[in-house]
Design brief:
By secondary structure, the protein is an alpha/beta fold. Helix content is 38%, strand content 10%. A six-stranded mixed sheet has the order 4-5-3-2-1-6, sandwiched between helices.
Length: 279
Amino acid sequence: MAKLKNAPVALIIMDGFGDGDPNDLKYNAIAMAKTPVLDGLMKEFQHTEIQASGEYVGLPDGQMGNSEVGHTNIGAGRIVYQQLTRITRDIKNGDFFKNKALLTIVRGVKEHGGALHVMGLVSPGGVHSHDDHLFAVLELAKREGLTEVWIHAFLDGRDVPPKSAQEYLEAVEKKAAEIGVGKIATVSGRYYAMDRDKRWEREQLAYEAIAHAKAKTVAKSAVAGLLASYADTSEKPEGVTDEFVVPFVVEGYHGMKNGDGAIFYNFRPDRARQLTHAF
């Protein structure tokens, strides 16, 4: 390989491009694709691989990486411990349950005889949120003696498979029952609840469902509403995926009232700002 003196150097990041097992073609678009230029570079020049997930980029062991995490670590030139890791650590060591901001909200709700509303992305994806953090908020509410806790579930379908929400909603219902507090009140696809491009007409549908219990559909349960959304082909012949589920209300929920409090447990701010601003 010829040595070039004083030549420019470019750092090119191909976002989401990984080197998996070439013999395992299931879900491996890169291995299936024809990439003659990259194949030539790999054959002709020295190269190495770096890890882009888990503890190597400041995430919990086994947690997949993502765009923001990768760019942060590359830019810093060191391991940067992510919000996901820090919050999870605080839950494990108990500091989470002593957090002044959280305690102020929870105790204020109890003092005023209100309900606690817990909203966020129901997903183990770890990009914007993690279910373990939702469960910790429910545990905090239980410890502080709250009895009325409503969960406003935003569906993913981007950082996890497109129709995987039923499993996650059922897991939330099961865990809430174990803890002894928390019921799913509304369900919204992230397309509506987590917009970041000032498409307020989308955000309004999620807001109306959460704040006023107003929606086109009132379902008997979260899963029943989800399955009905899957079956509805009026907008798309193939039906909708989790991301695009139109916000709906679950029977028994009547909206927010004076004295209530809310916790938005997404840790990544970019897709949480608009809905927070609306409230």
